[in-house]
Amino acid sequence: MKTQYVVAAVILVALLLSYFLRRAEPSKGLEPEPIKIDKPARKKVSVDATPDYPVPFGYKCQWLAVTTGDTQAVVEAIQLQELEIANWSTGVDAAYEGHYFVSPPIQGWTLVINALMPDITGAESPSPLTLIDELSNRFGEAYYFGTHRVVDYHAWAKSVNGKLVRVYGCLGETFINEGAISKEEHDYHMIFTGLDVEEPHLPSEEDVLLIAKEWTVDPQMEEGEYEAGTGFVGTLK
Q1: Is residue 86 predicted with pLDDT exceeding 60?
Q2: Three-state secondary structure of 182-220
Q3: What span, in angstroms and rounded, lies between the C-alpha atoms of 101 and 80?
């Protein structure tokens, strides 16, 4: 009889152990949680519709560049809402507070600036990668740039005719690196490593500003001739 009790106890312990081990195992087939960068809430702003000249931006910021001088068409393409006419100075200020600023035409381009827009880590929507695919499908080419040195986030992407052809992103370490490396990236030695090498080579905010300047418009507004104008400030759904 004692032997039967011992056998039963052993079986019970084995079953309990198997149950708790199964609960401790990670679920298979689930996608990992997206990387999330905490951002402050969008603030109310006041804007000025008096035309002025482009102002520098780029540090701790995110923006799109579209190959068109038709500002109104870009506004319609991204379905910008709660529109207000804004000049460069107040438009960029609003962009740093979480609003979208669609710029006036600048050297054949239109910029869409918002420091707090969703980034390319995949934690928020609408993804800028989706936006540039949609914009390039309509206008031919569209680009994304983003940088924030506090969290060590640096990224850029290029879309042509509705197809993403190059994307690089780093958040402390490279998390995405797809498509053929461009001539400009090669020329400026923007070939980055992981952290598993003796001397890692990672991007900085200056690399983001440089590739933006080479691919599109200089965000520091130090090169070329500029015209005064106004764009639009608004929000997306």
Answers
A1: yes
A2: CHHHHHCCCCCCCCCCCCCCCCCHHHHHHHHHHHCCCCC
A3: 9
